[in-house]
Amino acid sequence: MMLVHGGESLHLAPGQPVRMEHRGTLRPISRETLDETQVAALVKELAPAAMVALLGPQARLSFTYQGPMGAVEVELAPDNGGSAAVLRFRQPPVTGRQAAAAPVVEEPFGAEIEAGREELEGLLRRLAERSGSDLHLRVGEPPVIRKDGDLVRLDAPPLDADALERMLYGVMTSTAKREWQEASDADWAWEIDEVARFRCNAGRDRNGPVAVFRLIPAAITTADELGLSREVQDLCQLTKGLVLVTGPTGSGKSTTLASMIDLVNRTRTDHILSIEDPIEFVHTGKKALVTQRQVGLHTRSFASALRAGLREDPDVVMVGELRDLETISIALETAETGHLVFGTLHTTTAATTLDRMLDQFPSEQQPQIRVMLADTLRGVVAQVLCRRVGGGRVAAREVLISTPAVSNLIREGKTFQIPSIMQTNRKAGMVTLNDSLLELVDAGQVEPREAYLRAAEKAALIASLRARGHPTEFLG
After folding, report:
1. One digit per residue, pLDDT tens: the chain, 476 residues?
2. What are phi and psi of 299, to 5 degrees?
């Protein structure tokens, strides 16, 4: 926030929201106030190891934190029954909405950047007003939004390359600008006050710059509002193990995972550590203490953050994406050592999720990894989004709950038998994707054709639809 808005200092004090000094005036930048424990935990993350023991409710100390964006001077002093902290960059960042971190990124549009930002924010507001999920920007095309799964062109003139690039520079972070200039690809997050956060991606194609902005609602949907079953909600009360939320891109994984983390936050007095790229849903501490770290900004990689996280006293760890062998390996070790780990994968069913994880490892390591996975896995929620009859979308969820029988199949390398176990263990809360789709069709929420398009086992679904008397003429 200091870099983005050109703040002079950041103030963390018990009984106060997080405040930022800008042009000599302190203003709140968080909705909820901090308590003494939260301030102490935040400062502890920055303090050198040798100084941690000196931190206390009446501490009067100063130290330097070497962060990814530069050196930060931290001063502690007694305040309101606790210890308050003031943070300042040793070398003040360039002021302005998108202040640059060293090395300085060349700004090709100068004063036109602000106009580009305002134009793009106007389009993002239109996306939110129309309840869309994504904004697509392409050279030679008008802005396009995705609403209820369909792409809709806005009534606006086509974009040219300079206009689009100017808009992107208006909202890019300093890190994203460097990535954009060096590799023509960048990911970052942007927030418009009282509207929403947006997950941003920019790239280039044969016509010039391209960008997609995913709307992240400001309010987190609760587990009950999302329709998560009691068995899925019970996974959030575990003290250790691995819980996976999977599905293709755009299937609502982030929303489901956010509701599960929110349930932990509302019901448990634990430390939640999330590692994301970028941070999407923002969780403020409720009963729990929440630490959210962004890859590329607060840490080098998922793997390095996970490795460091074991020394940060977490109870629950959320990994935005289990994208490589090293991250999966450390996540399994973290779950094995007494932590509850949540993670996501881009897979469609529970069985393929387990196969994908195992296939990341060399063949000689797979027997050992199968044993670790069998011992640590607690559940898999695999979901797809379907068009709802009458408008909107609804999720069909496959749920795998780990039982001794499931663990044995994983250990013996017989994951192909897991769907059979799921069908015979519905009382344990297990649901196959086909059964979830059938329930939605039976309830009149989803058309049979839509269920067929989303199914993984299409032949079996058609047989079930016909057995229940649902029309299947769409097959031709």
Report:
1. 777 677 888 899 888 888 888 777 888 887 778 888 888 888 888 887 766 777 777 777 787 887 666 778 888 888 777 788 899 887 654 433 343 333 445 556 666 788 899 999 999 999 999 999 999 999 999 999 999 889 999 999 999 999 999 999 999 988 888 888 888 999 999 989 889 999 999 999 999 999 999 999 888 999 999 999 999 999 999 999 999 999 998 899 999 999 999 999 999 999 999 999 888 899 999 999 999 998 877 888 888 889 888 888 999 999 988 988 989 999 999 999 999 999 999 999 998 999 999 999 999 999 999 999 999 999 999 999 999 999 889 999 999 999 999 999 999 999 999 999 999 999 999 999 999 999 999 999 999 999 999 999 999 999 999 999 999 999 87
2. -160, 160
Query: Which token pair is 398?
Result: 């496959």
Q: Which CATH number fits domain 223-431: 3.40.50.1220, 3.20.20.70, 3.40.50.620, 3.40.50.300?
A: 3.40.50.300
Cβ atoms within 10 A of the Cβ of 159, count? 23
CATH number of 2-89: 3.30.450.90
Tell me the C-alpha distance between 222 and 219, whole Å. Answer: 9
**Which CATH number is associated with domain 112-216?**
3.30.450.90
Q: Range(s) for CATH 3.30.450.90 in the chain?
A: 2-89, 112-216
Helices (H), 47-160: 112-129
Q: In the chain, which segments carry CATH 3.40.50.300?
A: 223-431
Using DSSP's 3-state secondary structure scheme, residue 343 falls into strand
Separation of alpha carbons 382 and 187, rounded Å: 25
User: What pTM was computed for the model?
Assistant: 0.73
